[in-house]
Structure formats: C-alpha cells, structure tokens
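Researcher: Next sequence.
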Amino acid sequence: MTASPAPPAGPQRLLALAQLSNSIGDGAFYVTSALYFTRVVGLTPARVGLGLTLAWAVGSLAGVPLGRLADRRGPRGAAVLLALATGLSVAAFLVVRGFLPFVAAACAYACAQSGLAAARQALLAGLVASGQRTRLLAYLQSTLNAGLAAGAVLGGLALHLGTRTAYLGVFALDAAGFLLCGALLLRVPAVPGRGTAVPPAGEHGCENGDGCGREQGRGRERSRPAVVRDRPYIALTLLNTVLLLRMPLLSLGLPLWITQRTGAADWLVSALFVLNTGAVTLFQVRVARGIGSPGSATRAVRRSGWVMLAACAVFALSAGVPAPVAAAVLVAGAALQAAAEMGQSAGAWQLSFDLAPADRVGEYQGFFGTGVTVARTLGPLVLTSLLVEWGTPGWLLLGGATLAASYAMGPVARRAAVRTERPTPLPAARPCAT
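Model: Next structure:
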C-alpha cells in the first residue's frame, strides 16, 4: 500500500491545491515553451538558450533578498504577491516579439519564481511543526508531479495542433494557474514576519559611546544576509547542487543517450518520463516516512547516493546491446534513478529546514534554492559532456560524484547543526558613561 497523495485538510491541503494549480500550467509551459519562442516569437534557439540562462542567473540572485522580505514582512503576503508577479510575467510572454523584451520577461519570470519558492517554504515552516515538514513537502512533490504530468498532456495537445492560438492558450493557462495559486495562498492562515529590526539609537540606554557603537555595528551586521556568512550552510547548498545535476537527465541526458548510444526506440524517452513522474507521485510520501531529523536525513541522502551510482551503472549497460535488451535495461535504470531522486529530495528538504535559523527560513531557503538554478544552468553542459562524449566512463563519473557528495553531506550537516543548536549570545550592552 502507498501513502495517500492527499495531505490533511486545512492549511496543508490549501498549500497542495496551490501547488497543483500552477504545476498544471507549468507542465504545459515546459513542453511547449521552446517551440513557442522559436516558432511564434521568432527567436533562434541560440538566443532562447542565452536569454533563459541570463534570466535564471538573475533569478538565482533574487532568491535571497526576496526570501528575506518574506521573513520580515510575512511569508503569506509575499507568496501571494510573488505568485501574482509570476502570472503577470508569464502573460508578458504573450506579447513579446523581440530578444530584449523576451529577456526582460524571462528575468521577471525567473526572479518571481525564485522568490515564490522561498516565500512558500517560509510559509510552510510557519504553519507546520518541524517534524511534519518533510512529510508535507513529500505531499507537495507528489502533487507537483501529478500536475506536471497532466500539464504535459495538455502541452502535447497544443504541439499536435501546432497553431499560434494553441501556444497562446498554453501560456494563458499557465498565467491563470499562478493567479489561482495566489488566491489559494491568500486563504492560508497568515504567519507574522519574524525579521529583527535594527534597534534605534538610544534604545539600550545611551546615545553614544563604545558600547553603543558595538551594538549598532551588530545591528548593521544583522541587516545583511546572514546566510552568506554561514559557511556550513553554503557548503551544504553546494553539495546539494552536485546532487541536483541529475535534474536535466530525463529532459536532456537520457534522450541524447538513447538516440545516439543505444538501439532503443525514441518513444522510450516519453515512457521513462512517465515512469519517473508516476513513481514520484505514488511513492514520494512513503519514501519520506521516518525522515524527521538531520541524522535520518543524512542517512537517506547517503542511501540515495548508492542507488544513484547503481542507476548510472545500469544506464551505461544499455549501450551496444540489442534494442529489446537496451529498453529493459533503461527501464531498470530509470526506476533506480527515481528511487534515488525521492530519497535525496526528502533528505535535502529536512536538512535545509533544520539547519536554518528559525527567523530566517525564507532567506536561507532562497539561498538553498539557488542550487536548483545552478543545476538547471550547468546540468545540460555537464551531462552532455559526460554522457554523450565520454559514454560509460561518464556515467560512472556522474554516479561517483553523486556518491561522494552524498557522503560529504553528513560532516557538513553536523557542523551546521552545532551552529544551529548553540547560537552565540550577544553580550548585553553596557550603559554609556556620560
């Protein structure tokens, strides 16, 4: 028996419905966007790739400040505004007809998406107890995959029709999905902002002097992003980025591998995508059971590293064998890869929350989310070089790097846990001499 993909009624279910509302449009968007920008907007593939790379680079920089805004002003209001901003930026794609307007709209889209992800995580942290967050995120991941699969079907219909109206309908659907997402988030209970304002001069009993100067200096330090000075958390994010390099595997790495290195039929690319999304939809919640602490999370990540290494080795065996054998081997590899993905995701979610200060969840989640952006940017280059050009050694190198990063998570998480559990108290301000 698998766990129910529906979370409990109340705020958790509203969060899941908000996720579903925009993921359906996103699924259709992902399937059709490249052809829309080339066939309808009239951009070359090279310019589309350049524009999206620039946009996600800008979006990765926006995640931290927008996450800090959610911490200080309240994550629900920030999430609603950013959902509306994302919908408007998608709607802007309907009217762009040149490269620079396309880049501007893509940058707005990437910034709003990055900020929305951070604000949603901060909202979730404020509504759900620490021990229940990974389970809820598993529900949300299942919902996301179900929505993406449904949206991909709608996008496939638009591709079949091939008309400008069909493409525009997909983008309008995605924009409407984000507007509905904002409306649903507005029904979630508000979580107060937890940012700490810098105390004004004289609040500690003085208006000048050495003690007050130090206190004001500490206030200015707190006004800057704390995450950029948190070395263990930065290391954790970098290691997670290595694990996320498998993200373009289904959309780029495996399609190129199947068509250029194996004798399997091209339609197997679609079948493997359905296998992955279906597995995550059905089993992500079950995989997340029992993960409720940094210790259990690091163990889950380590196990996923071994499973991913096995998946890479199995994928490598699909080259140079008869087509039916290659298809069976690829299906087995895809099943292992889905299991590794679910374990790594659940462990990383738990660590990203547990090792962030309680009053800076949005800021820290904004930074942790940059790993997704970097993986989306560098993943295609890395996978193309390793898999298509190197073949079997490339698969083994990818699996070995994943295993090494998964084992390194443990020591880094322990260092970050010491910092989180034993904060250094600020010395009391001394009265100033007059």
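Model: The CA atoms of residues 307 and 362 lie 31 Å apart. Confidence is low (pLDDT under 50) at residues 196-221, 422-434.
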